[in-house]
Design goal:
With 431 residues, the chain is mainly α. It has 20 helices and eleven strands. The chain has a three-stranded antiparallel β-sheet with strand order 4-5-6. Strands 1-7 form a two-stranded parallel sheet. The protein is globular, with a radius of gyration of 27 Å.
């Protein structure tokens, strides 16, 4: 692939950001599903590396069944080079990490004409709780797609017609035509039932359009005016769930195929499966992508006030917090801030929930949650702490209170009050 320039990368960002207010960019993200792997006895692996700081050779070891190993990130670096940028993975030995404050691993990326590298720190072996500092393999994948996918799928009608009515129908043939039709096919010469026989029978159905398109009829995408990606997916979900043959599992399998196949320079096109690994408080597939672009390529993504307001609206509606939208808008306006970097936006959204004023009936539930998560997570002491906290709320004569105020109280005065009441606080975790 030809080398990319910084101007070309900036142009790609402009194209991507055009989709920032599209409906499909406001899909609330969901955690990535765990994958199943075949069981095998893990092997100990190791490889020698040279410390980029002191030049000493040292060994890095990992188990063959580990995820996100240094070998995985070496392959990611190779793919960045193939995508048209200069990239390298460097390591520091334990002594340099301890004495010089170096990161153990670094991935450096720049364009051919740039003098300075953009540094990111791969989250090798997936440290939890370090998402701001380190970059996951998932985030590198998002950036690779950003650099390599086409600007646009030119014909959405043809794309979905082929993907759903042909490719996916082939994969889930029994769901669409029924197992009986497949079993009725006669293979000559006759063979005993076997996996190979089943494949041959399925192929016989696929090869005959009158059989292949029997049963659950295909969708006529061309009958839809101004087809969009989100509308096509709605039609597919409705089609799968119709006619007494509904199956959520089938739809999820289609979405998996869709995420592998649908790639264009929009937020939806970079993360078709709508998965998020970190920053779920920020809410959308676009925020995860924008953070990854900043980490890996040093791109600065700016959200204006209009975009932040729309983000708030969609997130609060999704979390059944519609009654707090106007209050959230007011908090935003009090900041008197017209633009946010993606990091400032993500931090604002995390803090926003602590600033919302909740009625006391909901404050009790929030207080229980804070006690469970921040102070203790088991035992009779939880109930005693909650009882003291509820009495404090009643005595406050307040109509509303914020989650931030509840946290401050729970981590300070509540513990003092509990101790004064004779409750054993020796096992309390303080924050």
């Amino acid at each position: 692939m030809e080398k990319l320039t910084r101007d070309q990368i900036n142009k790609k960002l402009e194209i991507l950001r055009r989709s920032r207010l599209n409906e499909e960019s406001y899909v609330i993200t969901r955690p990535a599903m765990a994958m199943c792997y075949s069981m095998s006895y893990p092997k100990e692996c190791s490889k020698l590396y040279v410390c980029v700081t002191c030049g000493k050779e040292f060994k890095v070891s990992w188990r063959s069944n580990s995820s996100a190993t240094i070998e995985d990130f070496e392959k990611i670096v190779e793919r960045f080079r193939a995508a048209g940028v200069e990239a390298e993975l460097v390591c520091n030995c334990e002594e340099c990490v301890a004495h010089h404050g170096c990161n153990r691993y670094e991935i450096r990326i720049k364009t051919e004409e740039e003098r300075d590298w953009h540094f990111s720190f791969p989250n090798i072996e997936r440290r939890f709780g370090a998402e701001d500092q380190y970059t996951s393999d998932f985030e590198y994948e998002l950036v690779l797609k950003f650099l390599t996918v086409p600007e646009k799928i030119k014909d959405l009608y043809a794309f979905f017609d082929h993907l759903y009515n042909f490719e996916f129908r082939k994969r889930e043939l029994e769901f669409y035509v029924g197992s009986l039709l497949i079993q009725k096919q006669v293979v000559e010469p006759f063979e005993k039932d076997s996996w190979e026989l089943s494949l041959k029978k399925k192929q016989m159905v696929i090869d005959r359009p009158e059989l292949f398109y029997s049963g659950k009829k295909p969708i006529d995408f061309y009958a839809e005016k101004n087809l969009t990606t989100i509308r096509a997916i709605e039609l597919i979900n409705e089609h799968i769930q119709s006619g007494g043959m509904s199956d959520d599992y089938i739809f999820h399998r289609f979405m998996s195929l869709f995420s592998e196949t649908f790639q264009e320079l929009t937020y939806k096109g970079l993360n078709g499966n709508e998965v998020v690994h970190d920053y779920d408080n920020a809410g959308f597939i676009k925020t995860q992508t924008d953070i990854a672009l900043n980490k890996v390529l040093g791109l600065t993504v700016i959200y204006d006030a209009e975009e932040v307001r729309r983000n708030i609206e969609y997130i609060f509606q999704n979390r059944d917090m519609r009654q707090y939208i106007e209050q959230a808008y007011a908090i935003l306006e009090q900041m008197d801030k017209k633009e946010f970097t993606v990091w400032e936006y993500a931090e604002f959204m995390k803090e926003l929930y602590d600033k919302i004023q909740y009625p006391l009936r909901e404050a009790k539930t929030l207080l229980r949650q804070i006690i469970n998560e921040e102070i203790m997570n088991f035992g009779q002491e939880n109930d005693e702490l909650l009882r003291i906290g509820i009495q404090w709320l009643k005595n406050s004569n307040r109509q509303t209170i914020s989650k931030g105020e509840l946290k401050t109280y729970a981590l300070s005065d509540l513990i003092v009050q509990a101790e004064a009441a004779g409750i054993d606080v020796s096992n309390i975790k303080r924050g």
